[in-house]
Input
Amino acid sequence: MSLVFSFGAVVGKKYDRLNSLAICALIILCAKPMYVFDYGFLLSFLCIFCIFTLSKPCTKMFEKIGAKSFSPALGLTFSVQLGLLPVLMTISSSFNILSLIINLVCVPIFEFAFVLTLVVVPLCMLMPFLSFMFTFVQFIYFCVSQLAVWTSSLSWAYIPLINFGDIFAISSYTAIFCASGYVKSNIKTKTVAVSLVALFGVVMGGAMLLI
Output
């Protein structure tokens, strides 16, 4: 996405986040077409899609309920958890309710580690004797991964999920896109579109359960 952003700046084109995400997905799928069935690929790109479409309204929601100081972090984390729920219902039978709280801790730490990595890599390329700095970065990633492993080991934190099928998941993401700021329309039209798409997804999902 950074390369797409840089290329757009060179050719004088306006950068659009969703188009950039789509171009990145197409480039990867051209090299590895079967990745379209890979859950890691789907979760990665859907995670970014949810941030682009849901984080702003989720942040505003937390601001309205009085959590101004933490609203950006809460909005980001909640948008990802809420947005990934439809696909998680398709690929998993349970959901860890502690993930929202853990992500509030892990995401800022991971962001710090990621930025630090971007600084450390060129420094170590220029001055190899600074390679010991990688140990510190690696330790941060290790701590985050261990926290995730510990959370996943808590059996009492899981709640069961109902599998409504792929059509329900696709309808859910279509509804999310229709409700986002990327669709330029009035509130009434958006509400009707989202309601119809959501209703279609629920009906088809219910039908899949009965089959």
